[in-house]
Amino acid sequence: MPEAARTFTDLNYLDQLSNGESAVHRLDPRAKLLTVMVFIAMVVSFDRYEVSALLPYFFFPAVMIPVAGIPARYIARKYLFLLPFAVLIGIFNPVFDRDTAMFLGPFAVSGGLVSFASILIRFTLTALAAFILVAVTGFNGICLSLERFKVPKVFCVQLMMLYRYIFVLSNEAVRMGKARDMRSAGGKGKGVRVFGSLIGHLLLRTWDRAQRVHMAMLSRGFTGEFHIRRPLAFRAPDMAFVLFWCPLFILLRCFDPVSAIGRLLLGGV
Amino acid sequence: MHMADALISPAVGGTMWAVSAAAVAYCSKKVKKNLDEHKVPLMGVLGAFVFAAMMINFTIPGTGSSGHLGGGLLLAVLLGPHAAFLVIASVLVVQALFFADGGLLALGCNIFNLGFFPAFIAYPLIYRKIVREKVTTARLAAASIIAAVIGLQLGAFSVVLETLASGISSLPFTTFVLLMQPIHLAIGVGEGIVTASIVSFVWKADPRILEGPSTTKPSRPAPAGYLVGILLAAALLIGGLLSWYASSHPDGLEWSIAKAIGKGELQGSDRIHDFMASLQEKTAFLPDYAFRQSKPDASQGMQGTDGRLGTSVSGIVGGLFTLGLAFLLGFALKRFSFKGR
């Protein structure tokens, strides 16, 4: 159960972060969404043996996390929790790709190890970017910008409804799970049969709730649109944000400053 | 089964984004046209329900581990394919954003793998075929299990194809398939049993809920054409990507040949590679490492291996330097923003 509870508090916490008031929070969600997507596309587009040229991309999280006031420790913990998955998806590369890729002094490094390192770095960068996006934009902001990007309205409303009810229903589910666990002596009653009827009950209640929700929404004049505190407006700072980061990401993709810096530091070896 | 961004190439990610976006658009249109109004909040709340259901575990007999509901097939049973597809897609969006469970660029792949197969293959072609004539507990169970297994098998195979087409992982095709399919067979059986137990519970408690999707029967025959169309388009796209991957594979061959022949060959293809790189082509294997920097080395008349050594060391030194700079900047900004408050 602790895992479910943690997932739930995690969601709550990320949602809270998105209500912050930093300069980054105040930017238009569309600017942030676009920038993060360009970031991910550039990071992912590198060759699979690329390691060093990926490292300059760490500037983006390194700037965004402190400026937006996201607790670095929280991000680090979340990241460490995910790391095993990243290792799992990359671990096969050193096994199957044993050709020598480069020499570090006397040591020959296999291509698999290089691409494994590359996968870990990619994973770190893309996961960080996604967290940052949510933490500084909030889910509703993302949905609103999706709507402006011509994503069908039905889908956007679906996303927002889903998000609103996650908190309510998860609370209920965590309580139900806890109640079951406290009544199950020695792991009895934790099997599929009880689970089925437990979830079935939750489903029936959810169904009724959905109908009540819909009635309530209709009686308050719901016409298929949600309203938020910050109406979207693409202003100069948003433009500046996009025009600063996106060309930078693209430049870093085309030119590799890292090796140049390295050679400079080593005195032109 | 959620794919991460780290293993995806932009071509595959972009293609699957396009496919999934088209499917979302199509389903949105369908839902708007076919479903009665009150289904829209229902969809949202059911999406949240899937999340909630994931928070309750059940123990898997004999293993000591625990599993939870995936929910794709259950949603299809409750809502019908189009609405279910939208709900699954929305669940995946939330998972990608809040839990890094699947990447943002990989979202298109994940929506396709986890949404399309249960909603448009497993449910209409298997589940409904079994349950349609007569509803009994045994039929519900058999239909759920078979449909869940087939849906997940197709999804898992699709993961293999997409990963392979991306070419980031070195996992050979057969090994990957032999790894993925049996694991997802087990997961599919589990998902099927859980779905069956929920569906039969709901069927006993309130059968009207399960009738929902079957009342829209008249409009069913037409979508089959679309379905085939979407499938075909996806197959063509994936096939195209695969062959593109295959044709760019000689790069690896070229590289090993070049390595066998020696440095003269390397310099010979230098210009081509520069050209390719400037075209933003994803040509390269390792050569990028040695080629770009072997130019000054060549003019100084240094040996190939030494040149390479210089490259990798300078890459690492430069990389560490950059990384350090990024962290320093981060800390400085943190200081600054705290003082600013």
Quick structural overview:
Chain A is mainly α and 269 residues long. Chain A is built from 12 helices and 2 strands.
How would you describe this protein?
Chain A has two domains: about 1-150 and about 230-260, no CATH class; about 150-230, no CATH class. Helices cover about 70% and strands about 5% of the residues of chain A. Chain A contains twelve helices and two strands. Chain A has a two-stranded antiparallel ribbon. In chain A, β1 (about 100-105) and β2 form a beta hairpin. Chain A is globular, with a radius of gyration of 23 Å. The relative contact order of chain A is 0.15. In chain B, α1 (about 10-35) runs antiparallel to α9 and α5 (about 105-130) runs antiparallel to α6 (about 135-165). Chain B is built from 14 helices and two strands, in the order ααββαααααααααααα. Chain B has a two-stranded antiparallel sheet with strand order 1-2. Chain B has about 350 residues and is an all-alpha fold. Chain B has helices spanning about 10-35, 40-55, 70-80, 80-100, 105-130, 135-165, 175-205, 210, 220-250, 250-260, 265-270, 270-280, 285-300, 305-340; strands at about 60, 65. Chains A and B meet through α1, α3, α4, α5 and α6 of A and α1, α2, β1, α4 and α7 of B.
Order of helices and strands of chain A: HHHHHHEEHHHHHH
Specify the overall morphology of chain B: globular
**Most extensive interface, residues per chain?**
A-B, 131 and 111 residues
How many strands, what sense, and barrel or not for the largest sheet of chain B?
Answer: 2 strands, antiparallel
For the secondary structure, the number of strands of chain B is 2
User: What is the H/E string of chain B?
Assistant: HHEEHHHHHHHHHHHH
